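>> received
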Amino acid sequence: HVQLVESGGGSAQAGGSLRLSCVASGYTYSSHCMGWFRQAPGKEREAVARIDIDGGSSYADSVKGRFTISRDNAKNTAYLQMNRLKPEDTGVYYCVRGMAYWGQGTQVTVSS
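>> returned
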């Protein structure tokens, strides 16, 4: 069965960096797009970034120029490098495959 396991969350100060990882299993990883969503306290989940099977990527306007999504097909892993973090980046970050499969989420907290 499909499993997505995130790691790398934690606390950072504004202006700092964190890197999230998502290890996938149970399917042919290289054949599917991957994405990251987040949910801030009291808000709806929002799409953060997406990476296609050919490596093409897209980002939410709020993270463009600060976040970078990447993938390593040999390791069945997707990454989200988050730089110049802001307090409004605080939330639970989820790895997603095709909107049908979600990881358990990893907490990111950015303090000012």
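>> The CA atoms of residues 50 and 58 lie 5 Å apart.
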